[in-house]
Amino acid sequence: MLTSPGIFAPGGLLGAGLQSATWIYILRHAGFALFVIAYALLKDSDPVKWPSQGSTRTAIVASVGLVVALACGTTVLVTASNAFMPRVMLDMTQFSDLWVYVAAPTTALFVLALVLL
Asked: What pTM was computed for the model?
């Protein structure tokens, strides 16, 4: 919401622009689908064979830290490179032709995640 134009400021609160908001949206949905796929593939695995046998608290803190670092890193990367990102949105209401090539793989990830679950 901080990068979406027109919500908090005309150009977005972070001043990133329309492409940043769109790419954050796409990466957020693709990331969630990848998380579900990883969960579905690992849920029946034997935890004894996992490389780390540390405490539960350590695993939780490491997971939260990794998620926060990925979210912040993705936001900074997409926001800083707004001018270089492929134009998925032409304006606030129109998609470019590139949208099909971006939305289709993300949708396919969701379908794969549902099938694996």
From this structure: 0.73
Which residue, among 24, 41, 23, 31, has the nearest Cα to 109 in the 3D structure? 31
Range list of H helices, the chain: 18-42, 56-80, 99-116
40-50 pLDDT per residue, tens: 998 887 766 66
Domain boundaries, the chain: 18-44+53-116
User: Is residue 16 pLDDT above 70, yes or no?
Assistant: no
Residue closest to 85 by CA, chosen among 22, 33, 31, 40 = 22
Confidence of residue 10 (pLDDT cuts 50, 70, 90): low
Nearest residue to 26 (alpha-carbon basis) of 93, 91, 85, 68: 85
Q: How far is CA 51 from CA 32, 46, 48, in A?
A: 24, 11, 8
Phi/psi of residue 13, nearest 5 degrees: -65, -35
Given a contact cutoff of 8 angstroms between Cβ atoms, the answer to whether 76 and 14 are in contact is no
CA nearest to 112, candidates 28, 16, 38, 27: 38
